[in-house]
Amino acid sequence: MPQWLCNQMMRAFQKKDRRQIKLLNDCWYFYRNKQGSKEEGTETEFTEFQ
User: Fold this and answer.
1) Model-level pTM?
2) Which of 13, 41, 44, 50 has the CA that lies 20 to 30 A from 2?
3) How far apart are CA 29 and CA 31, in angstroms?
4) Alpha-carbon gap, residue 21 to 27, rounded angstroms
5) How far apart are CA 40 and CA 50, in angstroms?
6) H/E element, 25
7) Contact residues for 47 (Cβ-Cβ < 8 A; gap 6+)
């Protein structure tokens, strides 16, 4: 995962910004699909907190 995306995801989780978390999660899956899953076994899924 790119560092800029990690940083934004951590910030969104800290602020408990569900909209931002969902948006960044969608960006991550779009990025992963475009890359063709080159790095097998490193898939990270961010889930919505309760």
Assistant:
1) 0.61
2) 50
3) 5
4) 10
5) 29
6) helix 18-35
7) none
Q: How many Å apart are CA 32 and CA 45, to the nearest integer?
A: 11
48 Cβ neighbours under 8 A, 6+ residues apart? 18, 21, 22
Would you say how long the chain is, in residues? Answer: 50
Residue with the two structure tokens 């940083």: 7
| Alpha carbons 28 and 49: distance in angstroms, whole number | 17
C-alpha 35/C-alpha 33 separation (Å) is 5
- Of the candidates 36, 27, 37, the one whose C-alpha atom is nearest the C-alpha of residue 5 is 27
Q: What is the pLDDT of residues 1-47, one digit of tens each?
A: 889 989 999 999 999 999 999 999 998 898 888 877 565 555 555 55
